[in-house]
Amino acid sequence: MSAEERRESVIRAAMVEFARSGYKGTSTEAIAKRVGVSQPYLFRLFPDKRAIFLAAAERCCQETTEVFRAAAEGLEAEEAEHAMGRAYQALIADDPDKLLMQMQMYVAASAAEAAGDPEFSATLRAAWMEMYDAVHLARGAGVDETTAFLAYGMLINVLVSLGFQPDHRVWTGFYEPAQPKQ
User: Fold this and answer.
1) Cα–Cα distance between 42 and 76 in angstroms, integer?
2) pTM score of the predicted model
3) How far apart are CA 73 and CA 80, in angstroms?
4) Dihedral class, residue 36 (left if φ above 0, else alpha if ψ from -120 to 50, else beta)
5) What average pLDDT does this structure show over 52-74?
6) Rg of the chain taking only CA atoms, in angstroms
7) Average confidence (pLDDT) over 139-155
8) In whole angstroms, how far apart are CA 32 and each of 22, 57, 63, 98?
9) Best exposed site among 14, 131, 147, 153 by fewest CB in 10 Å?
């Protein structure tokens, strides 16, 4: 494998490890083991654990953003919103680590701010803003509609992360396209 292919493998492995154990709970040894490389080799590809996490978080946001863009392509307003909602539901159902990585990203950003590392959280916010902008443009509406869409998405993230099953009563207040498939 080339260094770029190895780097890609590290990012993929890191997404899984960080999703499951968080920034603080994930060791670079676990990432190296998942990839099948030595820890020293890992540090030839990335300067430190922080850089690995940021690469994994940025990739998670990029892939989610691409799901939104692809789903909304050629659609407008409410059609685009419903298509993006269905595509996001499929994404987190098919790849639950993607959802968990997002949740870990929020925790890591908050912890970095509290620890006095605003650069770390600024990088994560920038990745998230690309997702926001993609949704906003696809909706072709005002910020209120974009905010409502993303607020529903965040609530969905929380409910799914907490393990609420599709038939649980907490889902009954959702508009139809946002309800999970049973």
Assistant:
1) 44
2) 0.89
3) 8
4) left
5) 95
6) 17
7) 85
8) 16, 17, 22, 20
9) 147
